[in-house]
Specification:
This protein is of the alpha/beta class. It folds into two domains: 166 residues, 3-Layer(aba) Sandwich (Rossmann fold), CATH 3.40.50; 203 residues, Rossmann fold. Helices cover 32% and strands 16% of the residues. It contains 14 helices and 15 strands. The chain is elongated and about 70 Å long. It binds adenosine monophosphate (AMP). Adenosine monophosphate (AMP) binds next to strand 12.
């Protein structure tokens, strides 16, 4: 990796500001209902504490939009972190200012303090210079482990790095960059990308970029119907982005010209309504009746996709193959999850829905890497330089 990593630094006695992604779901009773993101940052936190750092943790939580919203306090998160670490983690009254400076100064090596929600200040998302300076004043070293926000330039991810002498990647950030970086730069081949989800428009960038990198692109989900229509097929009432037909044709032409396999579902599970109780049928792509919509890839497509997946050595998956939230339309997505699990390939899964699907299919532990950042991983796969990564100090 071309960026300084936390592993390269001597943190003893240093004030370390660690940006984490603790944007976790809370119950009405203010309890953390899923602590995956907190656990994901533990290796970095334990390392820093073990080295004798005075650790200040900073994160956003929810969308307070620049105002103090007590229900979005990081106090419950600090409580959960404290349980996981087996040591107390106090919460500061704010994320910057004199009171926080004093609390930080009172920390002893090996102690951690959770700063309050950085989005209680509008300056964070505006990458405000005054806020960036105020955060930098708190620390000697900045470490970023919040891959999920690396595609945005905020004061707590990018601005702060301008005013601290050293900015390093945490272990979680480094792992994301390692897996995604290798997939894009030097993948073991065949390199296969599986893309799904609702819309072509959300994934044009990644489709255009990946079509120049992969050996095969498998497209399912709602976005497949715009591609099928672009090939002249009648897609009934399926999700269709009529204004994206040209770009779909352009991507198909590009794949044809470069010899990239571009696989679209040849059959579908169809229904008249996207409802769990709606009667369903299976139909080939050439035979979707008027008024019916494709809501999952069909059995022939599952088999065809699985065959390509089985031959892959590197796999990237983002987006479900159908409306997998509803049981009648989840089999295609689960079939892809299972095929990836037994492929033996280096597999990288990103995007909230695909991650949920591998968990529901019971194969999460079979994936090489589950990305913690849906948007950030897509932008990385688009070939975009992530500002949160670019801002970190280069390795000499
Ligand atoms: P995205 O956020 O773009 O990854 O899209 C995820 C959403 O796409 C999920 O909520 C799915 O229910 C939805 N989706 C997947 N396949 C289809 C389809 N064939 N028709 C309509 N929606 C779909």
């Amino acid at each position: 990796m071309a960026k300084v990593s936390i592993a390269d630094l001597d943190l003893k006695g240093k004030r370390v500001l660690l940006r984490v992604d603790f944007n976790v779901p809370l119950s009405e009773r203010q309890e953390v209902t899923d602590d995956t993101r907190i656990r994901a940052a533990l290796p970095t936190i334990r390392h820093a504490l073990g080295q004798g750092a005075k650790l200040l943790l900073i994160s956003h939580l929810g969308r307070p939009k620049g105002k103090v919203v007590p229900a979005l306090s990081l106090a419950p998160v600090a409580a959960r972190l404290s349980q996981l670490l087996g040591q107390p983690v106090a919460v500061a009254p704010d994320c910057m200012g004199d009171a926080v400076k004093a609390a930080a100064a009172a920390l002893r090596p090996g102690q951690a303090l959770m700063l309050e929600n950085c989005r209680f200040h509008a300056g964070d998302e505006k990458n405000d210079e005054a806020m960036s300076r105020a955060l930098a004043e708190l620390c000697d070293v900045f470490v970023n482990d919040a891959f999920g926000t690396a595609h945005r330039a905020h004061a707590s991810t990018v601005g702060v790095t301008k005013f601290v002498p050293l900015s390093a990647a945490g272990f979680l950030m480094a792992k994301e960059l390692e897996y995604l970086g290798r997939a894009v730069a030097d993948p073991a081949r065949p390199f296969v990308a599986v893309l799904g989800g609702a819309k072509v428009s959300d994934k044009i960038g990644v489709l255009k970029h990946l079509v120049t990198k992969v050996d095969a692109l498998l497209v399912g989900g709602g976005m497949a119907y715009t591609f099928l229509k672009a090939q002249g097929m009648d897609v009934g009432a399926s999700l269709l982005e009529a204004d994206k037909l040209d770009v779909a044709r352009e991507i198909l032409d590009r794949a044809r010209a470069t010899g990239v396999t571009f696989l679209l579902p040849m059959d579908h599970v169809i229904a008249e309504k996207a409802e769990a109780t709606a009667p369903t049928r299976t139909a080939d792509s050439t035979a979707i009746p008027a008024g019916w919509m494709g809501l999952d890839i069909g059995p022939k497509a599952r088999e065809a996709f699985a065959t390509v997946i089985r031959g892959a050595r590197t796999l990237v998956w983002n987006g479900p193959m159908g409306v997998f939230e509803l049981p009648p339309f989840r089999e295609g997505t689960f079939a892809v999850a299972r095929a990836i699990a037994i492929s033996g390939a280096t597999s990288i899964v990103g995007g909230g829905d695909s991650v949920a699907a591998v968990t529901q299919a019971g194969v999460a532990d079979k994936m090489s890497h589950i990305s913690t950042g849906g948007g950030a991983s897509l932008e990385f796969l688009e070939g975009i330089d992530l500002p949160g990564v670019a801002a970190l100090t280069d390795k000499k």
